[in-house]
Amino acid sequence: MNKMIIATVSFKGSLSAPEASRIIARQAERVFPQAEILQLPVSDGGEGLVEIVNSTLGGECKLVQTYDPLGREVSVFYLQLADGAALIEMAGAGGLTLLNLGEYDPLRASTFGVGLVILDAIKAGADPIYIGLGGSATVDGGTGAATALGMRFFGSFGERVTSGGGLGQIHRIEINTPRLLDYSGQLVFLTDVNNPLCGPNGAAEIFGPQKGATPEQVKLLDQGLWNLADLIEQEVGLNPKEMPGMGAAGGFALPFVVFMGAELRGGIDFVLDLLKFDEKLVGADLLITGEGRTDTQSAMGKAISALARRARAAGVRVAVISGALGEGAEKMLELGVDDLVQATPEGQPLEEALAYAAENLEKAAFNYLAKL
Question: What residue numbers bound the domain in which 325 lies?
Fold first, then answer.
């Protein structure tokens, strides 16, 4: 073994991507002390994006005082890159990780705080501004964030709507504001979710329940997104309902795409290109990646499938060491994965598996590598 790349994503609920990569790398160094071991933790645009890019490329961290999804004060960093671009992690001010389980409430949750972070980057002259979508607590169709930039969404009685619960009441939109007109740069939203805004595969139906929505609330949120999309179509003649990826992060990008010409782009491929992943693959014998749970969804465009695809094209062996292997994990073999390894011992309860995630990953990585 001459060269090995360790490129995990986060093990949600237990280990960040850098932590998981370090654990596996330490075991690789034990087993192959003469090999070049390159740690390259990655993100598909969700939680950990800023930390990962900063640790690899550097940049200037900018601190913003803003608000979490329920309106509480929170401090958030975004990254100013050397070329003038800015990188913002939507989950920093709009993520589920900011809330306790009993606080999940997509009817109240707003992206207003994320909008203030975007506004800070605009005022700083950043261009382009990349916003990683993922891990959101919201289904507000981006109304909260757009309000922070000066757009206005008015309900039946003239009230301003900035959260999911009021989407169905919106009947007027104002967009002609100085904050929008002053920015001529490009906003780029990063996501690997292809879900549309509305309907059975939309933002509310697919992602609402994991954000705390009951079946009745899912229906209310979906109806609200339909209403907002209909109003937008009347305003600009563009139907956003079936646009691939518009359902990401509760429809966050919607007002920015239709009113500011923002772009939706694949998150993981953007990050891999930014980190010069293909260049670093040259000469590698093995790529080890992993995540909290590998299942059917992993093969449908998630980060580890992109890693496997690129490694396979380069003729590099690929191993996936994940916390758990769920139904459909074997589909990863069709994408170029050679070895699938589950770190959690069979039968270990979830709570215990999360608590001992580091120890489980350490043992699984050593046992796998020692057999090569």
Answer: 3-42+279-370
